[in-house]
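Question (not urgent): is this output format expected?
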Amino acid sequence: MQNARVVTREQLLEAASVAVVDGKVTTISSNLVSADFDSVIDLDAATLFPGFVDVHIHGAVGVDTMAASKDDLQRVAQFLAANGVTAWLPTLVPAPASDYQKAVSAIDALMQQQANEEAASGARVLGVHYEGPFVNSSQCGALHTAHFKSFSGISDIEILPTPRAPGAVRMMTLAPEIPGGIELIQQLVDRGWIVSIGHTRAGLEELEQAFAAGARHLTHFMNAMPPLHHRAPGPVGWGLTKHDVTFDVIADGIHVDSLVLKLVLQAKGTDGVTLISDAIAAAGAGDGNYDIWGETISVKSGRTSNAKGSIAGSVITMLDAVKMMRSLGVLEVQIAQMAATNPARLLGLDQLRGSIEVGKDADLVAVDEQGAVTFTMVGGQLAS
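Got this back:
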């Protein structure tokens, strides 16, 4: 690839080139010789970002991860790749055990298919993210409280199906204040799970206990948690000031106002913030009414709502979140950090992906001046 604005971890390189051999980035330079390579892509001054990594997404293009088949998930993977995402973590909501089993079986099947593909056909599935069921009913958001649980022992973890694919990521969003919550965190961390705090009303003491047990992240920051109060800082105040805690945000201007997004970035710094979509099946399908999670969720002018009037996920893509950050004047190097580097680091995969560096997977996305994706590369193969 040549004639690109290449976003590395440290800087934006103008009129630069990136060489890819056997699925890996081998050279980043301003003077690569085209004749040395089998094929050359001229990016016409497009901006080359590391591929976006979405750690919290419930579906898209009419597909819900809770009810999807392998082929359904493949459609989502193709849609995501067309919008710059090269890796994603299908996210499940509280549901009966049989629904979990079906969902994870489909996830596992697609992971195995992708592992055996010679050419990329969509964004890579990395594992599974359980949003609940161990969360606080007082901060349920759009989740169904009928399936919420407290933690009573190891069997509560062991019955949760997870992908069998080697290296599959297992992540859980939970509320540490539920009965058994701190022990749950300890048990999950001991078993290699990534723990994120969310749908919570935890106080500072409980949050510190959760941190000591191994929780280092907060889910969709400011949403499904009490607002910041000067005498009760809660998860928001704690997350903004706790140095070793990171969080993710839904940067759609609906879940969090754009002015508050600016405030959050100024307070935390981009190294502590990850962008997510929290997209539901309606993403990419336009306004209308959709049967999702056993209820009707309506989408109007990009805002979701359920029968209670609660926001029920989003309909944005990671590309939309990137566009929002650009509109706020955030530097492209910082945007790449939030959309790719930080989520890869959260999942423990930053040695493989998340930034454009020699030796890393060639997961790349080119974005033109208008903010449209011109191509996406997954593992050195064009996926869109």
